[in-house]
Amino acid sequence: MLIAIINQSKLVSNADAAAMTQAIATQVRMDVAPLWDRAAAAVIFYANAKDVPPAAHGIALVDTIQDQPAGVLGYHTEDRGGKLWGVVAAKPELDNGGTATKGDWSVSSVLSHEVLEMFIDPNCNLWANDGRGKAYSFEVCDPVEAPTYAVDGVSVSNFVTPAWFDPLSNQATAQYDKLGKLHAPFSILKGGYVVFEAAGAEHQKFGDEFPDWRKEMKAGKFARTRRRLEQTDAMFAQATA
What we know:
Elements: E1 2-7, H1 14-36, E2 42-46, E3 57-62, E4 74-78, E5 84-89, H2 91-95, H3 107-120, E6 127-129, E7 134-137, E8 149-151, E9 154-156, E10 193-198, E11 201-206, H4 212-215, H5 224-240
Parallel strand pairs: 1-2, 1-3, 3-5
Antiparallel strand pairs: 4-5, 6-7, 7-10, 8-9, 10-11
Helix pairs in contact: 1-3
């Protein structure tokens, strides 16, 4: 899997975009792929979109995302041909005190978030049953959006491991997220959130410290959260048909 990063933002320099990409490529190779027991995806920055290989999936850095609520920071989706593509907006982060490459609410952490979720659940269609009547979406960064951690001095997103989705995991020994801050499956940090289905209805749960301004990013017409909520409606309709 090749994920191409393209910078179309006037607020983020090519140098910063390249540094983000390199840090995320290292994160995928050294952290995510081993914990998920997968072959690593290649994450490469292209200064010129014309140089992106035809088979690559892509994520573009922009200032704002057209036809989306003002707070939407990023999303990725899939076209009818199976090609994955995504967008990360820099301006909402920067307008709310974030920076390009440092801190919990950085542009680089959002880019990392989108890359990791594209890598783990590219088609945005995996769910995990908790054995207690709930099904949780396979969003590996959502439950632990903050705090982030640094790779080569660049802020990247924390992420959950396969054990997080396993209700039978051993809580005494399992690692539930990269930073080791969670201690049970299906739990969230104060800066995280989850989407789940229960009793035929969709639900969102936000941590106590999840910023209000970031909640808008989940409502865009292409946002993964909105797609997940639509999936829960479809699943319930099929179950009751």
